[in-house]
Amino acid sequence: MRYWLLKTEPDVFSFDDLKKRAKKTEPWNGVRNYQVRNMMRDDMKVGDLGFIYHSSCEVPGVAGVVRISSEARPDPTQFDPESEYYDKGSKKEDPRWLLIDVTWEADFKDFVTLTALRDEPRLADLITLRRGNRLSVTPVEKKHFDIICKMGGAKLK
DNA sequence: GCCAACGTTGGC
DNA sequence: GCCAACGTTGGC
């Protein structure tokens, strides 16, 4: 099993929004980066765990834990001219962009701020903390996953 | 195939 | 609002 970190702007879609969704599940649409698409296609498996990370907001940080609940499948928004994610270059028979579904898995007792992540020396090589990192989905090593779960007081099953 | 210009991300 | 970093685009 692998572990992941998924960035989202909480003003657009937050961890709390996910909990309010039917079946607490949401299609993770709008990914328009080839590296991330390939990771979703090749490396993500149903049952993997991930963090929801809030970015571009007052207090960035990790909000909670989700489970990857689908294989990669075509992102329907690429075919919708009304969508901000519309890609007129993508063909139905050969979709350019994929998504996976995420399902709520566990709450944190405490939100884990970016500052707290940076202050933890054992997380020094966490990809998300690397200078200039811009990928909206990154792999997380198990040891890092466990540390962050502990920091947040995750109520894992 | 190179690389400058441009656009986006995201912390501060 | 600024700006560093980096992916993408497009001219050549």
Overview of the structural elements:
Residues 70-91 are annotated as: Disordered. Residues 2-151 form the EVE domain. This is Putative RNA-binding protein with PUA-like domain. By secondary structure, the chain is α+β, with helices and mostly antiparallel strands. The chain has a single domain (3-152), classed as ph1033 like fold, CATH 3.10.590.10. Helices cover 20% and strands 28% of the residues. It contains 4 helices and 8 strands; from the N terminus they run E-H-E-H-E-E-E-E-E-H-E-H. A 6-stranded mixed sheet has the order 2-7-4-3-1-8. Strands 5-6 form a two-stranded antiparallel ribbon. Strand 3 and strand 4 form a beta hairpin. It is globular, with a radius of gyration of 15 Å. The two termini are 16 Å apart. It binds a DNA duplex (12 and 12 nucleotides) through loops.
CATH topology: ph1033 like fold
- Total helix count? 4
Mean pLDDT score: 94
The helix fraction, in percent, is: 10-25%
Q: Which structural class do the helices and strands define? A: alpha+beta
Supply the CATH architecture: Roll
Lateral strand order in the biggest sheet:
2-7-4-3-1-8
Shape: globular
Order of helices and strands: EHEHEEEEEHEH
Largest sheet geometry: 6 strands, mixed
Q: Which secondary structure elements does this structure contain, and how are they paired or packed?
A:
Layout: E1 3-8, H1 15-20, E2 25-27, H2 34-42, E3 49-54, E4 61-68, E5 73-74, E6 98-99, E7 101-113, H3 114-119, E8 137-140, H4 142-152
The protein binds a DNA duplex (12 and 12 nucleotides) through loops.
